[in-house]
Design a protein that fits this description.
heterodimer; A: mainly alpha; MetI-like fold; 0% strand; B: D-Maltodextrin-Binding Protein, domain 2; Dipeptide-binding Protein, domain 3; 2 domains; 24 strands; 26% helix; globular
Amino acid sequence: MIKYIIRRVIGAVPVLFGLSIILFAFIHLLPGDPAATILGQHARPELVAQMRARLGLDLPLWQQYFNYLADLSRGDLGNSFINNRPVLTDFVVRFPGTVELTIAAMIFAVGLGIPLGRLAARRPQSLTDGAVTVVSLVGISIPIFVLGLTLQYLLAVQLKILPATGRLDGHIDIPAVTHFMLVDTLLAGNPGAFVDALRHLVLPAIALGSIPLAIITRITRASVLDVANEDYVRTARAKGLTERRVDGRHIMRNAWLPVTTVIGLQVGGLLAGAVITETVFAWNGVGKWVVESIEAHDYFVIQSSILMFAFIFLIVNLIVDIGYAFLNPRIRYS
Amino acid sequence: MSYKRIGALLAATMIVVSACGGSTATPAPTAAPTAAPTSSATGAPTAAPSATPAAGTPKDGGTLVAAIPGDISSTDTAFIQDSNSSAVSNQVIEGLVGTKPGTTGEIIPVLSTDWTISADGLTYTFNLRAGVKFHDGTDFNADAVCYNYDRWKNFTGALASGDYSYYYAAVFGGYGKDSNMVSCTAASASQVVIVLNHPYSSFLLSQTITSFGINSPAALKALDADNPDPTKSGYNTGSKGAMVGTGPFMFSEYVPNDHVTVVKFPGYWNKDGVAHLDKVTFKPYADQTATLNALQAGDIDFAFNLNPTDLGTIKADANLTAVDRGQSCNLFHLAMNQTHKPFDNAKIREAVGYAINKQALIDTFYGGQANVAVTWMPKEGLYAKDESLPTYDVAKAKALIAESGVPASELKFDFWYPSNVARPYMPDPKGIFQAISSDLEAVGFTPTAQTKPWRDGYLKEEATGKYPMWLIGWTCDWAGPDNFLDTAFFNYQGGKPSPEFAYKNDTLQATMKAAEAATTDAEAKTLWEKAQDLIRADMPTVPIVNSTPPAAGAAYVKGFVGSGNLTEILNTVWLDK
């Protein structure tokens, strides 16, 4: 198992390397010039040229790429073109926000999706199954920003039962220690602030988790139905096992595998969805940062953020693969 | 985040230079870029950042959570170029002079009490306010002022570049020997003499922007503000101890892209201007819909920037109050390039002026927060002259087209508008484009719609003269007429007309340069008015509107004094709850 993990981690290096080349090429193919963007309207050509030189954009592309790689190998993600700060400095502040939101969205999607899927599978073609299917289709069909703005309008603006934006009420003072708001509020010994941070998580987590919720629900339903028709399930029932035992030991245990795979894959979707969700909910995370950086052609921020997203995606999927072995003892990695 | 020059930091309606009565609350707004050698502007000690608060007895205490459109870029005012950062620094850092709250450019003394200007317009002598302390407890005096001015002048390397100290170079023309500032001398602890190389009629006006705020020398040194790599300067990056000035609020905390906090400075020198609020937290909100939702949901108390089309929603909500910023500091105009037919013909350009229903644009797209432009700068601007611009008259437009002799077949052209952008002067480019296109078609023109993303090609292509007709505008960062007429619009580059408009008028160029070097108010006024007359005669573009970007707050937020140049100090704000 250890060898397998090491092999997978090493295997991620060429993947990330290849991705960095593709990313670099795509970003530099974007129309527009960061130097002109920074200098704004009426930037004189000589100032633009000076700025390009200062940013290293006057060098050949291959040289820019290798400079970037060399810096990256030293842990230097470059400086933002916009605020001139090291990308790593802002990343450390923003990344916890995205992690917190992604985990909350995943808890929402898994916590609701699996029970809903099981419920639908228990009585296929029933009214319950139909209702769950409709909910799933709605979840998949509504764009995140539409759902987000609608939730904001209904629950925050009209009913005022949840906050609309941000990670914590601006009137509450909490020292930023880890930048995980739930952790920082606890460290500050302020349970009221912790509850406020939790309340701020609800709407963005629902908006972001809506698509994974729909997918997990559908996969769970299909997987449970599939397994439920297997001979060994019928045998188990024939042996007189309780329905609860059949469900827990024979159906779900085997139905977990495809569901787990899908959950792993959905992490990628969540990270992509965070880009929109964070913008709609003024959530201080990496996703909002990516949007702002693309608008401003802030190359280093875009490259580093997306590479980091890719790295997380690879790690999560590695964890999912390892999880298979625990879920199904027949699977052994060597 | 949109990264833009401060824009709207300056606007001059009046410059106070000539003598003012010492007992009045504010200096008399005698307009003059420079003054007679013996004259002085004496501001009353309480004049500066206090303003008339709203009715009611202000209550002290509380925290205001305010939305700004994006994150700040720096906590070193010398490097600030964007309106997000200046929204914060305006609370903390003060300069020798400032703009009177509620106006776009009426100059008032702040850390100076009065000043004199030599007859040749080269020597500015400022008397300084006594008993002022920086937030770190050190004394404000002439040495502190010159420490700041000398620091800016002597910037080198990355610090002496457009991406850091842009405004020093823009005002003084360069650094070191290239700077228009010859020297800053502490004549005494309470008097500073600044000598220029050549007269600059907008000098005082330029010193009102946040980039020329006086920071504590001790704090600058403590956080290594002059590190050749500004990313390693805690003073620039918002470390504890950064942004130390003399304003009514003290910098407290900066968490990148999350919030900036300033707290009340009880020892503020202007006892009438001590802040009511205990604390202000600025939070970046890039999305205007999210901003409105946050305001309505009570997540924030105040929003510095909202979409004008949301004004109806705000006014209909009893829990919110819209802020009228009054005077404008921008211009939106319909641009034409004279190398493209049919805009080489003056009658055609004039006809375009008569074809546009400007009031309808204001009613539809600006929520009423704009006025029809009367010249090529805001109508309240210094030396602005009502040029009797064409009013909406379809018959007149058609008659001019007929007089021009241009056949109908040559009235076709590409008409460009930008995508992926909304500017204070242009809140809905596509909608505005469609309305103007419709007006143009009604008089016989045949515009063909063309678009490009604002940052990804539009700005570059319009500046290089590719577009026959397009939408463009300017938000003042330089409030004088020079900032609009010369810097932003009709300047020559390398002795030739800028390719943007391809507008050639050598007399206009000479007039503008003479106006910028004028040493008397009368002379400057005459020359700038002549410049506007010259432009009017040629009608190179069609001024459309001057707008005021809307702001709004919860109904319990009282005492906010809005300014069209966005130089807004929150010491008068209080919470009625």
